[in-house]
Amino acid sequence: MVYIHYGATKYDPEKVKPIKNHPMMAKPEGGLWGSPKDAVRGWKEWCEGNEFHVERLEHSFQFTLAENANILHLGSAADLQGLPTVVHELVPVSMWVCLDFEKLAADGLDAIQVNISGDTTENHREGLYWKLYGWDCDSIVVLNKEIIVEI
To answer: Which of 59, 64, 93, 113 has an alpha carbon 20 to 30 Å from 78's alpha carbon atom?
Structure first.
């Protein structure tokens, strides 16, 4: 699969910071973010639709992942069951899921790909979009920069 990262014209491994859990957020700090190039609901579409940093869309590069990459694919809230999480005292448990990205990376996970557009959950509050609040589009976060292959 081909992914696209916006905001830079080429891949620079020195700019990819280690994955770190972010307090009270369903998204981690660090890693490399992108969207599948053929995403139904990708980053570019989301930014344009929400008038969010549209100027950054002018610069991008494409990448793929090593064949042996260990990728976790999430397509529904049910896929979150059994994954390690962290609890933040200010986030009610019922609100969203804060995955333990540091543990996932330490356990050998290379990337997490989220398919928001494919979630068919009828109750919006029970769906992947809500449970991973802040993952607004079909996207991938690469936890291990060693698997990134720039095109």
So the answer is: 64
